[in-house]
Design a protein that fits this description.
By secondary structure, this protein is mostly helical. The protein has a domain of 104 residues: Arc Repressor Mutant, subunit A, CATH 1.10.10. It is built from seven helices and two strands; from the N terminus they run αααααββαα.
Length: 151
């Protein structure tokens, strides 16, 4: 199930000293995951960030636009652009927050709920593709190790 330890293969010999660079392998892994995600989501026309916003708003109706950006580690301009695109597609609606009139509360529309349901099916397929490369224990350890980088 897990990949055997790297050996001196033709592929490793072709990249030379880069094979020992952790960041290089992280970049390659990220690229493979991103390509598979893009293929899996091509029919939906949604990006990873758009799916994340839909999912977060679906889980927390009325969440503020500012809070979405903060929780997903996106700047205000990026968050606004994503929310605008999702609103233009009819997936989100903005309302003035009842708790703080300066903030925009976000809600999924009916189309947004449908789009999120489709996205969750795609994510299940994508996650299965990714997780099948590891044991359950390896997945737990990998998540723990990656969290050390991004936290």
């Amino acid at each position: 199930m897990g990949k055997p330890a790297l050996t001196e293969s033709k592929e490793n010999a072709e990249i030379g000293a880069l094979d020992g660079i952790l960041g290089f392998h992280i970049r390659l892994a990220h690229g493979a995951v991103y390509r598979h995600f893009a293929e899996t989501f091509s029919d939906l026309g949604l990006t990873q960030k758009q799916v994340s916003v839909l999912w977060l708003v679906g889980d927390q109706p009325g969440i503020s636009q500012i809070e979405v950006g903060s929780r997903l580690h996106m700047d205000r301009a990026t968050t606004m652009t994503i929310v605008n695109r999702l609103q233009d597609r009819g997936y989100l609606r903005r309302e003035r927050s009842e708790a703080d009139g300066r903030k925009q509360a976000l809600y999924l529309t009916e189309s947004g709920h449908d789009g999120l349901a489709e996205a969750k099916q795609c994510i299940a397929s994508h996650e299965s593709w990714l997780k099948n490369r590891f044991t359950r224990q390896e997945i737990e350890k990998l998540v723990e190790m990656l969290a050390r980088i991004h936290e």
